[in-house]
Write a structure and sequence with these properties.
Length: about 280
């Protein structure tokens, strides 16, 4: 164990406090503003606490005027279906790459790695044309397909957990007459909870907050939450305190998702760093 001097211990805590302040400071004024009336917001500083902590007018107004609930429903449908496909693809792909040796294994890993260096924007012209020709532009199906893929980062996270699962379990199951599908679904998949939770939260937050792809592919009345917020904020008559309330409501699902899965996330990411 490293003996830490008082100076470096103090410096560490100062650094942590400053880091936390950079995160918290923008959030506190948003909470204060969301709970203020219009007149109170104009008359007080953004760092001044509201006079009434139970003021919910801005939240109810944002829900009605911003059509946030239907948009949130659309977002959650896209999110749930996409995560089911994406997480399963990541786990299955990682299982094959980690458990089996075959000729094209190195090439497949290289292709997955190469996709990290290709900007997404540069491929959108081709992808958009494909979606247009199959009739999915303006349909949430296009978003589900685009979000359902997996990446090399997802694969590395799952492979690291697979490395901690002994192959003896596979061999014992094979001797008992089980096939690889049964081994994967009955033995391996239940042990991948840390990786699954990590992928679900990381990818889920990315899908939930994405604006570019829904804005490009959804045409018409279909809206995700980010598009609804953008159109709501674009209105010049929308009061800032109502905007703040809308932002806070939009963050609640992400916070709940993280709180329920944080232990699995720490285990999954810690293992990924060790690998």
């Amino acid at each position: 164990m490293i003996n830490e001097s008082k100076f470096f211990k103090t410096l560490r805590y100062v650094f942590l406090i400053l880091s936390a302040a950079f995160v918290v400071v923008p959030i506190v004024p948003t909470i204060f503003t969301a709970l203020k009336t219009g007149a109170e917001y104009q008359a007080t500083s953004v760092m001044s606490p509201p006079s009434n902590w139970l003021n919910t007018y801005n939240f109810t107004y944002a829900l009605k005027a911003g059509t946030l609930l239907p948009s949130l429903g659309t977002t959650l449908i896209i999110l749930a279906i996409s995560l089911i496909f994406s997480v399963n693809f990541a786990c299955m792909t990682s299982f094959v790459l980690q458990r089996f040796n075959f000729k094209l294994k190195g090439l497949i890993m290289a292709l997955y790695t190469a996709t990290m260096f290709i900007p997404v924007v540069t491929t959108q012209v081709v992808v958009f044309r494909i979606m247009y020709y199959i009739g999915l532009v303006g349909n949430i199906g296009s978003l589900i397909i685009l979000y359902s893929g997996t990446s090399i980062v997802d694969i590395y996270i799952v492979i690291n957990i697979l490395n901690s699962i002994p192959k003896d379990l596979d061999e014992a199951a094979l001797l008992d007459g089980a096939g690889y599908f049964k081994i994967y679904f009955n033995i391996v998949f239940p042990l991948l909870k840390p990786a699954i939770a990590t992928l679900a939260v990381i990818k889920g937050i990315g899908i939930y907050n994405d604006f570019y792809v829904p804005n490009l592919y959804l045409i018409g009345n279909s809206r995700t939450l980010t598009i609804a917020l953008y159109k709501f904020f674009r209105g010049q008559s929308t009061p800032f305190e109502v905007m703040s309330a809308a932002v806070l409501m939009a963050t609640i699902p992400v916070v709940i998702m993280f709180l329920f899965a944080q232990n699995y996330i720490y285990n999954g990411l810690a293992g990924a760093v060790k690998s």
